[in-house]
Amino acid sequence: MADFINVILPIPLERLFTYSITSEEAKLLKPGMRVAVPFGKSKIYTGLVHDIHQDPPQAYEAKEIHQLLDDFPIVHTTQLKHWEWIAKYYMCTLGEVVRSALPSAFLLESETLVLRNNEYEIDEEELLDDEFLVFEALQHQSVLKVQEVSAIVERKNVLPVLERLLAKKVIVLKEEVYEQYKPKLVRYVKLGNEHTSDEKLEELLKSLTRAPKQSQVVLSLFQLQGKTQKPIKVSELEQASNASKAVIKSLVDKGILEEYFIKTDRVNYDGENESSDSKDLNEYQEAALGDIKSSFEAGKVTLLKGVTSSGKTEVYVKLIEECLQKNLQALYLLPEIALTTQLISRLQEYFGEKIAIYHSKYNVQERVEVWQNVLQAKPKAQLVIGARSAMYLPFSKLGLIIIDEEHESSFKQFDPAPRYHARDAAIVLGHLHNSNVLLGSATPSVESYYNTQTGKYGYAEITRRYGNVLMPDMELVDIKESQRKKKMKGHFSERLFLEMEETLNEGSQIILFQNRRGFAPLMECLTCGHSPQCPNCDVSLTYHQYRNQLRCHYCGHHTALPESCFACGSPELDTKGFGTEQIEKEVTALFPNAKVGRMDLDTTRGKHGYEKIITAFEQQELNILVGTQMLTKGLDFRNVNLVGVMNADSLLNFPDYRAHERTYQLLTQVSGRAGRTKKRGKVLIQTYNPYHQILKQVTTGDYEGMYKEQLYERGQFKYPPVCRIIKVTFKHKNYNVINEAADWFAGALRTNFGGTVLGPEYPPVARIRNQYLKHIVIKVKIGESLAGTKYNIRRIESSFKAVSMYRSVRVIYNVDHI
Question: 14 and 76, same structural domain?
Fold first, then answer.
């Protein structure tokens, strides 16, 4: 009987595709291996083998596969199960999950090559100018890539040119699959075999008396080999002999030196092999560890609520130690890459080179290496630390998952699909592997805390800071009153300015928090009131002073700073509002002797951007650090005694049911950066409304009060954790089409679900990248079937897509929208 495989292609189509294979290939292939397969007219994709069977497809003739790409599966069956769950739960396709999960180097795609057609005689007179340029290039070069053709004819879209050349039979096209991952090879050198004995070496040195530089290289190599048994890198030899690459190359060419290559990992831990013992826990940490272990024994996911600086990391270290002793793997998930930089140096003290790091700031090659190390369960990847994508790695014996700062919204992926929540997906991963799952936070999300109250999750708590350090002294500063009395220095109240002065005089450090990057969110004409808008999105452009330009934070559009108003030509332009850049400038003017740093998306773009700023602040090269919310999470600075929140109201007045919960979490987290050693820290929160309930709860650390209030309000308005939420977003470039489409869909949903459907409604930013957006929110009560609701929504979508006018409208689902 003929053999077939079902393949997952990394494209957003619902189904698997069947290809035919030979009986030989059927013996070699296993689920989780990659194959290159033809798809469409000529494109070749990397597919992932889902299963092997003998049922031919009914609707089409199965094509043969192009080639096998692996000798062994690079994805485990448990992983495939997990990915299928993600696709089903978050209402996306398995292909989208595969594209998101696999490092892009694994997803080989074909590249179109342009070749000369030798079978036909070409009449050059018939060719147009741009066609002749390509034809001429192919006389000198046998193969051209599409981007090379683009450079030759000096235009981006070269498809019309290629189509005309194909029609005239001047060229043929060929698809070639190319490998993106190249192992890193390091060059090493050694003396050629015939020169290894002492006599031969002496002869060699005599023969090189006229070439002192070459003789120096040989002597240096001989000395290096005497000192160490390790292979000698070319770069080491260059340094030791003070010689250039050319000198070494000429010795290699003569056969005196032999060069060879050794494959090495791009990311290596450079520390000592000896790892230090973990610290002893205090009584509160011991009690929490005991609670965690007993709820692990009961098979429960456990929440550890520990106030900021209570030493949660030390508790995690004890659990990781136990897990690694059993020769199991551990996964440590963090919401921000900024956090990984500081945590890695702490954990490397304990676990040395057992740590692997995985996040998006690593390049494709480095990510492939981590993937392979985890797949082969190598000792250097026993503990994986990473942002949300680390959850996709091919663990074979996962014993522990720690999700730190579990309340963070950064764990939710917004674009592109799958729009998963890493915390929830990691809990499912834990169930599939039968591993222990621990959530940790000083300010748990309302949902997680609700799960502990209902007995679904286990619970442990640390109520004291490590070393019995006092919680920071928090104070609300009324800036409305300060402005009325004209006691403001720029955006700084007199109270904050004096505290900063005192802190700097004591030699301590300061963190200033403002949750908006750029210089000012708005530029306005004082004559006519016009403010420059983004041409692609419905938002005003943000002024960035360091580049002297206006930028859109949604699509990246930017323009030079105008000298006069676009609308009326008046030169009187002024900025409204403020961002981190403006705060940095004001601080520098107020404290000219202080060294000021800024940490936001603009200053941390490079691979080591986070590392440089955090290290400089840790080593006290900076006195004041201004930053956005990436500053607030879990970072441990020993010398910070003052935290200033520039404006708490911008967080509270946000059109979102979580705004109050988020404000509480953010302000508590940022205040937790203060006074982490003996001296009690101080936190000043500037606000126009110091009597706001949430701000009072932050200053008194009343998490219970905040939780009860939020739970009551959400119960009234049917929001999580009382209900589940599915948000449906429509995208289209035509305003009228999107209105009609959203109304049609909402009508169909109301027929099915009644009053639990809200919308359709435009979001606060209703157009992004020239696409209009409209939202519908469906609330699913706890107890109702979520799977049934999704099935009904999919049914409605099928009817919706059957209407020809709506086919071009993109429908996006966001399950458990936050």
Answer: yes
